[in-house]
Amino acid sequence: MEPEDEQSGEPVQRPVPSGLSLFEPAEGAQESIPGASGSAEGSGDGGEEPPPDREPPTRRRRTRRVLLWTLSALLALAVGGCGALWWTAEHYASSVQRIPDAFPTAPETAQPKPVPGSGLNLLLVGLDARSDTPTTGSAAKAPAWQAGAARSDTMMLLHLSDDRSSATLVSLPRDTWVPVPGHGEAKLNAAYSWGGPALMTETVQNLTGIRIDHLAVIDWNGFRALTDAVGGVDITVPRTIEGVGEARAWEAGTHHMDGATALLYVRERYGLPGGDLDRTKRQQNFLRALMLKVMDSGTLTSPSRLGGLLGTVGEVVSVDDRLSNTDLFQLAWGLRSLRADDVRFMNAPFGGFATRGEQSVVLLADHPAAQLWEAIRNDRTDQYFQEHRTGDTLGTDVD
Q1: Nearest 5 degrees, angle CA 199-CA 158-CA 150?
Q2: According to the model, what pLDDT value does residue 216 have?
Q3: Local confidence band at 249 (pLDDT 50, 70, 90 cut-offs)
Q4: Residue among 70, 55, 51 nearest 25 (CA)
Q5: Of the candidates 4, 363, 379, 7, which has an alpha carbon nearest to the alpha carbon of residue 188?
Q6: What is the pLDDT of residues 329-365, one digit of tens each?
Q7: Which of 170, 250, 254, 276 has the fewest CB atoms within 10 Å, i.e. the most exposed one?
């Protein structure tokens, strides 16, 4: 029996000894069972029924303390994890070299209007600097652009759908005959030589009517280094190709290519039946192989690995200074659900070869090209490919 208070006659509750488990009764203590005979609360005749059992105040306070400490620990872990992720993003994204003044200075009224909710458009430029001195990335020893020093060797328009469920990459042949603002008509790659990233961006915008959101530039030194950094790529050559002049011969079969070998593969065009058009397909084929390797390694789904990838890219690639560290990380992280089948590679609609003066040039097919630009501009590429299945898309059989 519990001792009773001398004035009220009610049972006095004993204090709970320290060190007891929160979940087990004290040794020798009897658990209270409502309605059981002989219990302190149920004894007596005709008395008023006492209130039900309550957990002792000390035990309640101890339980609350444990819950508070547990929640605090979980919150600290969550904040620490977010902090570590933010630090990783900032650290690696900060290593990416930024290009100032990469966009046209023309008035907004003279540029294509951005379409809200229509995805993201990036211009990818490969430089043929013909120098062993790096010009892009954090290891650059020379500017990415000097007037007349180098022409762009590769131009690709990359469209990412607004929900990041698909991507379309369109190669613009470097010999495409286009109007270059302030210079009349010329080959597309001359725009970079004359006016750098800003003139190249303006020329592509005028050609396509598509607003360019961001720009990325890599030179061939960076291309070699990036390929070696991922351990090389595997590319299948479907048929044996004989060497022509300085062009290398390729045996049919799958080749594991390091940076130097991959550079020979993507730069060659003289031994190919379609010349520069087949060359752009090789470049796309390489990018597809590189993308598959990155995806298979789980890099895009792991924040820590993604940070490492950004660090590698930052050593060899330069981007426009409008692309913040957060934008860069979110852009890469947003592609984590993308699969190889969700990415379409194609050449801009081909309208034939021609001669302008003493120059051999590439013409675009005006109407088909206009349809493609309209689809990209309004984020309707899925619909476009359903209606144009015969487009010049990249297949698995690439010479």
Answers
A1: 35
A2: 92
A3: confident
A4: 55
A5: 363
A6: 888 888 888 888 899 999 999 999 999 999 999 999 9
A7: 254
pLDDT exceeds cutoff 80 at 131: no
SS3 content of the chain, % helix, strand, coil (to 5): 35, 20, 45
Counting other chains too, the contacts that 263-272 makes at CB distance below 8 Å and 24 or more residues apart are 263/220, 263/223, 263/224, 263/227, 265/235, 266/223, 267/153, 267/220, 270/244, 270/245, 270/246, 271/241, 271/242, 271/243, 271/244, 271/245, 271/247, 272/241, 272/399
3-state secondary structure 181-200: CCCEEEECCHHHHHHHHHHH
Under 8 Å between Cβ of 236 and 253: yes
Structure-token pair, residue 56: 């002792």
Q: How far apart are CA 360 and CA 134, in angstroms?
A: 30
Query: Can you tell me the distance from the alpha carbon of 56 to that of 330, in angstroms, rounded to the nearest whole number?
Result: 51
Polymer length in residues for the chain: 399
What value does the mean pLDDT of the chain take? 77
Tokens of 276: 């520069």
Q: Are 301 and 334 in contact (CB under 8 A)?
A: no
The tokens describing 24, both together, are 């087990």
How does DSSP classify residue 241? B
What per-residue confidence (pLDDT) applies to 55? 58
Tell me the C-alpha to C-alpha distance, in Å, between residue 152 and each of 16, 123, 128. 81, 12, 6
Q: What is the pLDDT of residue 172?
A: 95
